[in-house]
Amino acid sequence: MEKYGAGAIVVSAYDPDWPALFEQERARIQGALGGLALAIEHIGSTAVPGLPSKPIIDLLVGVPNLDEAQRRYVEPMIALGYIYMPEYQSWLPGELFFRKGPPGPWTHHVHVMELSHHRWQKLVLFRDYLRAHPEAARAYAAIKRELASASKDDIAAYRNGKTAFVEATTAQALAWGTMRSR
């Protein structure tokens, strides 16, 4: 069982400070990486106004080349207080994963991937879809709260429990994104 940080999984009420916390961290990462970061997006539940979430700011950093990023990003991210998690590559192929905070609970997660990676568009559209569809965000909130209660400190069970909803909603988001761009 993969344990969650320092205790039970907690889904907190939406905090209106989350966007500002993202902006602060985005500026720090941009400052450390400079032109190495082509784009930095706020993703995950803390990026959706009104959506309860684990209080972890998720950042998505777009790079031109993942191999180059692995050589050039790790040290600057460590200097910002992040821990590089190479063992997550089996779960998150094609990306580098970092987290920050005391040894749990974590305060920030950073996903680094090429802008052309298939997950980039899915992560951004999932966020945008939840922002534009409050009923989907409410359904997601209910699932997250139920899973947090049932999973206790088993983060893999929590993550896996969300999979069906996330996949179905991402499919809807992709169709919605296609219609929106016409």
Main beta-sheet annotation: 5 strands, mixed
Strand content: 15-25%
Total beta strands: 5
Q: Largest sheet, order of strands side by side?
A: 1-2-5-4-3
Specify the structural class: alpha+beta
Within CATH, the superfamily carries the name Beta Polymerase, domain 2
The radius of gyration over CA amounts to 16 Å
- State the CATH class: Alpha Beta
- Provide the residue-averaged pLDDT: 93
Distance between the termini: 45 Å
Uncertain residue ranges: none
CATH topology: Beta Polymerase, domain 2
For the record, the count of structural domains works out to 1
Helix content range:
40-55%
Shape descriptor reads globular
Figure out the total of helices: 6
Reading the helices and strands in chain order gives HEEHHEEEHHH
Q: What CATH architecture do you see?
A: 2-Layer Sandwich
